[in-house]
Amino acid sequence: MTARLLDGKATAAKIKSELAERVKALAARGITPGLGTILVGDDPGSQIYVAGKHRDCAEVGITSIRKDLPESATQADVEAAVDELNADPACTGYIVQLPLPRHLDTQALIERMDPAKDADGLHPVNLGRLVHMVDAPLPCTPRGIVVLLQEYGVPLKGAEVVVVGRGITVGRPLGLLLTRRAENATVTLCHTGTQDLASHVRRADVVVAAAGVPHLVTADMVKPGAAVLDVGVSRVDGKLTGDVAPDVREVAGFVAPNPGGVGPMTRAMLLANVVEAAERR
Ligand SMILES: Nc1nc(=O)c2c([nH]1)NC[C@@H]1CN(c3ccc(C(=O)N[C@@H](CCC(=O)O)C(=O)O)cc3)C=[N+]21
């Protein structure tokens, strides 16, 4: 058996065309959504990601506002950029590209953002609203994962989901999303302190690998027919390597590869958050 592809690229393209329609409806009301990005330093990976986000915006009709600061930027410099986007009526949502250079206080910058403009859904107020199950911008990768599974009809109600990784951008908020009544999954959140990861993964109907450990999930750990989503990336000998070993596709029922799976969904959900922020205004 070979797994069915959870095609994030195709699903994201479909979502983007739906968002383009909503942007047109907003235009008729005189509203143009605008995405801001704050990028500090010249990490080549971050440059590529940010450029991709601005390309996505152009495709959908969202204005984009770039604030690029040098590696030498001080906390006060980045705070000033945050304050400007908070105040800018043309910016309906924005992100601070992570990771920031080590001399900057990431937490203080995220907390300084206007939660209503938090396109990443990572502001403590918005993560708190997720805990409270109150409507708010949702974290992009977890939301993209849920939408991708729904698109392919992978059942979540009553399903056993194992999430590997407890990071703030993926694992931890994904557990919160999947345990809402609407999704109703049973979630096990595994991490580096988990004893016998394989015994947990083996029971899972859905496995989300977001630990950043190359080929952490191997074919022998996967229940036949399970859905396996590869979210981690690491560089091994200069090559991008996911958290899921290639032979998992021989056992799994569905696979979201990396690239081509969850990454494009993350980007599409960022656009959705920006459009929704504009619609709420
Ligand atoms: N504030 C903030 N928000 C983020 O959402 C954020 C961030 N910082 N820092 C870095 C990570 C990484 N990330 C990716 C999103 C999409 C792809 C993606 O679309 N990848 C393609 C391949 C690359 C491409 O085609 O451009 C794929 O998986 O098919 C990758 C990585 C968002 N991040």
Question: What key phrases describe this protein's structure?
Answer:
alpha/beta; 281 residues; Rossmann fold; binds 5,10-Methenyltetrahydrofolate
Question: Could you characterize what this model shows?
Answer:
This protein is α/β, with parallel strands linked by helices. The protein has two domains: about 25-115, Leucine Dehydrogenase, chain A, domain 1 (Rossmann fold); about 140-265, NAD(P)-binding Rossmann-like Domain (Rossmann fold), CATH 3.40.50. About 40% of the residues lie in helices and about 15% in strands. It is built from nine helices and eleven strands. The strands form three sheets. A six-stranded parallel beta sheet has the order 1-11-8-7-5-6. The N and C termini lie far apart (about 50 Å). The model has no long low-confidence stretch (mean pLDDT about 95). Bound molecules: 5,10-Methenyltetrahydrofolate (GUE). 5,10-Methenyltetrahydrofolate binds next to helix 2, strand 4 and helix 9. It catalyses: (6R)-5,10-methylene-5,6,7,8-tetrahydrofolate + NADP(+) = (6R)-5,10-methenyltetrahydrofolate + NADPH; (6R)-5,10-methenyltetrahydrofolate + H2O = (6R)-10-formyltetrahydrofolate + H(+). Keywords: Amino-acid biosynthesis, Histidine biosynthesis, Hydrolase, Methionine biosynthesis, Multifunctional enzyme, NADP, One-carbon metabolism, Oxidoreductase, Purine biosynthesis.
List the helices and strands and how they pair.
Blueprint: E1 4-5, H1 8-28, E2 34-40, H2 44-60, E3 63-69, H3 75-87, E4 93-96, H4 106-112, H5 124-132, H6 140-151, E5 160-164, H7 171-178, E6 186-190, H8 197-201, E7 206-209, E8 227-230, E9 233-236, E10 239-242, E11 254-256, H9 262-280
Parallel strand pairs: 1-11, 2-3, 2-4, 5-6, 5-7, 7-8, 8-11
Antiparallel strand pairs: 9-10
Helix pairs in contact: 1-9, 2-9, 6-7, 6-9
The structure holds 5,10-Methenyltetrahydrofolate (GUE).
5,10-Methenyltetrahydrofolate (GUE) is lined by residues 49, 52, 95-98, 120, 140, 258-260, 263-264, 266-267.
